[in-house]
Amino acid sequence: MKPAPIPANEMARQTSLNTMGLLSIERDPELDRITKFAKRLFGTDIVAISLLDNDRQFFKSHVNLSVSETSRDISFCGHTVMHDAPMAVSDTHKDERFIDNPLVTGDPKIRSYLGVPISNEQGYKLGTICVIDSHTRNFSDDEIATLQDIAHWVETVIALRYSERSQKQLVSDLDTAQRDALIDTLTGIWNRRGLEELLEREISSAHIRNTPVGIFMLDIDHFKRVNDTHGHLVGDKVIQGISEIIASSLRDQDIIGRFGGEEFVCILPGVRLDPIMFLGEKLCQTIRHLGKVSNKNGDPVEVTVSIGATWVPPHIKTKYSSSQVLQMADDALYQAKKAGRDTVCYKPLDVDRALD
User: Fold this and answer.
1) How far apart (Å, rounded) are the C-alpha atoms in residues 195 and 38?
2) Please, how many CA atoms are within 13 Å of residue 297, restricted to the half-sphere of its CB?
3) 34-48 in b/e burial notation, b at 16+ Cβ within 10 A?
4) Whether residues 73 and 107 fall in one domain
5) What tens digit of pLDDT does each residue of 265-303 get?
6) Are residues 234 and 88 in the same domain?
7) What gap in Å lies between CA 236 and CA 263, rounded to an integer?
C-alpha cells in the first residue's frame, strides 16, 4: 500500500479548512441531498463527501458508510487531492497503491473508485466527493464530467455555509495557533491574512447571492509624526483606539481588521452604493471627534484618518479577486491622501481588470 501523501501547502490548507468551520458532526441537508442524488445517478454502493483533517478523513456526508471517519493515510481521497484532475480507479486489485489497503482488503471492500477534489475560494483542496463500488467499473468520460459538475455544486454549498457563519462563530472555532495566525495581537481584530480570507468569502457569497459588498481602506494620517513625537506606546494606543471606534461605528455583520501598520480594512456585506460615501464621511467625522488619546504629559493627541472606498456590485458576470478589490480601495485611499487627508474618496472597480 502507498500511504496518502501530504500536500506541500498542508499547514495553510488545514488552517483554511479550520477557519471555515466545516468539521462538525452536524448533518447538512443540502450536502446529504447531493450524495443521495449522486447515489441514484451513478448507482454505486457508496457516495461520500470527505474532508481531510490533520490525520483523519472525515465524512461530511455519505450514503452506505458505517463510519464517520477513517485514518487519512489509508484514504483514497488523500491521493485525489494531490492533483487537479479527477482520480479514477477501475480495479483496486490491479493498482499497487491500493491492492493491500485496509479499505480494499476489509470493509467497505473498495474495488472501484472515482473522486473529484473539492476546493474553497482560496484554492485549497479541502477533500473530495467520491463514488465507490465493491466491483470493478470503468468510469466513462461522461460520468467523470458529471461528477465534476456535482463537485462544483458541493463547492457552492460549502461557500454559502462559510458565508453564513458569524465572526464570533469563526473566531470561536480557532485554536490558539490559528488565532495567532489570523488575529492581530495589538487590537484583537482580524489581521491581514484573516482579512484576505474573509474578503474572499464575502466576494464569493455576494457573487452567488447577487448581493453587493462595500470595502473601506483606512489609513491614520501622519501616523509617523505621532510615533516620532509621542513614542510608540502612544502610537499603539492610537491604533487600539481607532480599531475600537471603527468596530463600534459599523454593523455586527461588518468585518474589520488591521491590514498592517496604521492601515485598516472594513468589509461591508450587502451595503448599497448610495450610502458608501456618507458612511465613509461619518467614520472620518467620528474618528476626528473621538480619536484622541493622552500622551505621557496627559495632553490629548488628536488624529484623523483618510479612507479609500470601492464597491463590488451585484448581478455581475465577472468575479473579482480579493487582491483586485483591495488594490482599487488602496488606489482610492491614495486619492484621499492626495486630496488633503481626513476625507474619503471612492473609486469604482475596473471591469477590464476583472477575472473571467
Assistant:
1) 36
2) 6
3) bbeebbeebebbbbb
4) yes
5) 999 999 999 999 999 999 999 999 888 888 888 888 899
6) no
7) 13
**Residue (of 57, 81, 80) closest to 70 by Cα position:** 57
Burial class (CB in 10 A: 0-12, 13-18, 19+), 274: exposed
Instruction: Answer whether residue 325 is part of any domain.
Output: yes
Confidence of residue 25 (pLDDT cuts 50, 70, 90): low
Mean pLDDT of the 324-351 span: 93
User: Considering the entire predicted model, what is its pTM?
Assistant: 0.65
- Provide, rounded to the nearest whole percent, the portion of the chain with pLDDT above 70: 97
Provide the residue range defining the domain that includes 234.
169-353
Distance of CA 63 to the CA centre of its chain: 28
Domain co-membership, 289 together with 180: yes
Q: Using an 8 Å Cβ cutoff, are 309 and 287 in contact?
A: no
Catalytic machinery residues: 262
